[in-house]
Amino acid sequence: MASQSLHLIAPPTASRSLARISTAVIPNLRLPYLRQGLRLPLACSSAQTPPSNHGPAPAVLSSDNGIGGGPIAGAASAIDVDAVSEAELKENGFRSTRRTKLVCTIGPATCGSEQLEALAVGGMNVARVNMCHGTHEWHRQVIRQVRWLNEEKGFAVAVMMDTEGSEIHMGDLGGSASAKAEDCEIWTFTVRAFKSPLPERTINVNYDGFAEDVKVGDELVVDGGMVRFEVIEKIGPDVKCKCTDPGLLLPRANLTFWRDGSLVREGNAMLPTISSKDWLDIDFGIAEGVDFIAVSFVKSAEVINHLKSYIAARCRDREISVIAKIESFDSLKNLEDIIRASDGAMVARGDLGAQIPLEQVPSVQQKVVKICRQLNRPVIVASQLLESMIEYPTPTRAEVADVSEAVRQRADALMLSGESAMGQFPDKALTVLRSVSIRIERWWREEKHYEVMELPDVAASFSDKISEEICNSAGKMANNLGVDALFVYTKTGHMASLLSRCRPDCPIFAFTNSTSVRRRLNLQWGLIPFRLGFSDDMESNLNRTFSLLKQRGMIQSGDLVIALSDMLQSIQVMNVP
Ligand SMILES: Nc1ncnc2c1ncn2[C@@H]1O[C@H](COP(=O)(O)OP(=O)(O)O)[C@@H](O)[C@H]1O
Ligand SMILES: C=C(OP(=O)(O)O)C(=O)O
Ligand SMILES: [K+]
Ligand SMILES: [Mg+2]
Q1: Cβ distance 29 to 466 under 8 Å?
Q2: Which ligand is nearest to the CA of 347?
Q3: Could you tell me the distance, in angstroms and rounded to a whole number, from the CA of residue 415 to the centre of ligand 4?
Q4: Residue 350 CB less than 6 A away from ligand 1
């Protein structure tokens, strides 16, 4: 039966009749299973009312870009995709669209509507708010502003909330933006609560066990080495320290202490990964409809499982992806388990570099990127990518090399922190990430630097296994045939991520019927997510997609595409008519 077979639709120059691909192409594929739907749990559907998956599909390729409800911008114009992807696609052509995704931390430098819009236009795929800083009211404004821009201007920026976590950090410096610690000055680190103002050269520490845990002679390291102190005396709750490496203290800077060259993990090793404040922030994030929650200082898979079941119980109408931040010494012992439990990971090099020797950070980065690719989880490389651009309009050559390396490793996403949150040149920093990504990706394709990465099976069921085989084969076919794009019709996004995992030469157009899935696909390498109501009839899905995309000038007759579907578990090769 033709509808149960894999279809190879030959290019128009050859015969246009359907030709079957023999199962030999995909050895593990058994035809009777081809019509099985993917059996992935979809705990919550979108908060929006997505077009029905049954019955006649609406003739509109729509993008309901807002996080909440609201009118669909441009719905009248029949087709709508993220305005920035569309522009990139038209400007650069199919093959040269950017594959690496960009995350920007929003802070005082970028929280205004115009600045947020400039970042969205500049290619920000995900806006990150860091709960270490700012009030709920501040974060709410930012999240709503992003949502409003999506709705009004046709962007599809996802929102990531990043928890504070409960590692040791300083207080907020009594409201000052920073404080300078000079060589040999004596500062007091204390767990005492002061009524403001703080006495001179006094720093609050958030961890009650601090004065008990440190010892005279310990080295106190601020923000992974921006400032260093030596503990010289303990007086009750106060710890007197002498500055040994002068520098700038910033509010809520992270603190670690070291004894005989090793990181001290005493009582603070028992601090909860998710503090009571973090739970309140998580409730806030769920209520505000964030797409991702990044968990700071993850030590084990349990905490991720715990949070995931909390979210599933609290949020039945939509999914939120949980991203594990790899930044603590303890996370390295349980790396695979943590990543497997999560929906993605972040190499949070800022704190990671404060917990392990700096020279080990690059190899950990490479390892995390590799494990994530193998386990099919998106990975973000974060912190200090363009640190000097907080102050200067041009990056250092070393920073460009660092960004290039992350792109070369084929991480899913790069992240700006201070550069976009409080730097002087957020847009320029984003432009650097964008242009370096595009350049390195092109070089990689032109020079055919294919890494031969083993992609182990990740399937949990036979049906998943079929999807995986189809995607792996499609990835190879796309490169061998030099196709212009992969099209994937996916309800849960799973098949789109399996294709992304192959890191094919061509871009992947991911059509999904859920706004929430669509926004989350924004984080994954090479995916251009569209929202589209589609049916089980691939022929009609394809024809409609072709005509809608052609109307928008996003594809042309003759373009060669491979189309996959996770309802039918099918694969077709065809020229756009
Ligand atoms: N919501 C915010 N409000 C005020 N300042 C912020 C905010 N978010 C970020 N920042 C500033 O930007 C800097 C860099 O951001 P980030 O790397 O996310 O935080 P951190 O330095 O705490 O790891 C912060 O140290 C802080 O000075
Ligand atoms: C991204 C990081 O986390 P945060 O900015 O929240 O400290 C990091 O430590 O690199
Ligand atoms: K954080
Ligand atoms: Mg951190």
Answers
A1: yes
A2: 2
A3: 12
A4: yes
- Let me know if domain 173-270 sits in CATH 2.40.33.10: yes
Q: Does residue 105's CB lie within 6 angstroms of at least one atom of ligand 1?
A: yes
Rounded to whole angstroms, how far apart are CA atoms 497 and 378?
Answer: 8
pLDDT digits (tens, 9 = 90+) for 399-450: 999 999 999 999 999 999 999 999 999 999 999 999 999 999 999 888 876 6
Tell me the C-alpha distance between 561 and 558, whole Å. Answer: 9
Rounded to an integer, what is the distance from CA 211 to the centroid of its chain? 37
Dist. CA 320 → ligand 1 center (Å): 23
Would you say the CB of residue 418 lies under 6 angstroms from ligand 2? Answer: no
Nearest atom in ligand 2 to the alpha carbon of residue 383 is 10
100-164+274-446: in CATH 3.20.20.60: yes
Q: Are strands 238-245 and 186-190 parallel, antiparallel or unpaired?
A: antiparallel
423 C-beta closer than 6 A to ligand 1: no
Structure confidence by residue, pLDDT tens digits, 213-237:
999 999 999 988 889 999 999 999 9
| Tokens 């899913």 found at | 412
Hey, whose CA ends up nearest to atom 10 of ligand 1? 107
Q: How confident is the model at residue 6 (pLDDT cuts 50, 70, 90)?
A: low
Residue-wise pLDDT tens digits, 162-178 = 999 988 999 888 888 89
Ligand 1 closest atom vs CA 128: 18
Per the DSSP assignment, residues forming a β-bridge with 473 are: none
Distance between CA atoms of residues 361 and 348, nearest Å: 10
Kindly report whether the global pTM for this prediction surpasses the value 0.80.
yes
Closest ligand 1 atom to 253 CA: 22
- Residue with CA at minimum distance from ligand 1 atom 16: 417
Residues 6+ apart with CB under 8 A from 49: none
Decide if domain 2-65+459-575 falls under CATH 3.40.50.620: no
Task: Report the separation in Å between the CA atom of 106 and the middle of ligand 1, taken as the mean of its atom positions.
Answer: 8
Q: Amino acid identity, residue 563?
A: A
- Give the closest residue to 377 by CA, choosing from 403, 416, 328, 411: 411
**H helices within 409-492, ranges in order?**
418-421, 426-446, 462-481
Q: Check whether 41 has a pLDDT greater than 50.
A: no
- Nearest ligand 1 atom to the CA of 132 is 22
Domain ranges for the chain = 2-65+459-575, 100-164+274-446, 173-270
CB proximity list for 100: less than 8 A, separation 6 or greater: 406, 407, 411, 412, 413, 414, 433, 437, 441, 525
What are the DSSP calls for 266-286, one per residue?
A: SGGGGS-SS-HHHHHHHHHHH
What is the share, in percent, of the chain residues with pLDDT greater than 90? 66
From the CA of 193, how far away is ligand 2's center (Å)? 26
Query: Which ligand has its closest atom nearest to the C-alpha of 133?
Result: 1
Q: Is 381 in the pocket of ligand 2 (CB under 6 A)?
A: no
Share of the chain above pLDDT 70, in %: 85
Ligand 1 pocket mutation pick from 126, 129, 132 by most atoms within 8 angstroms of CB: 132
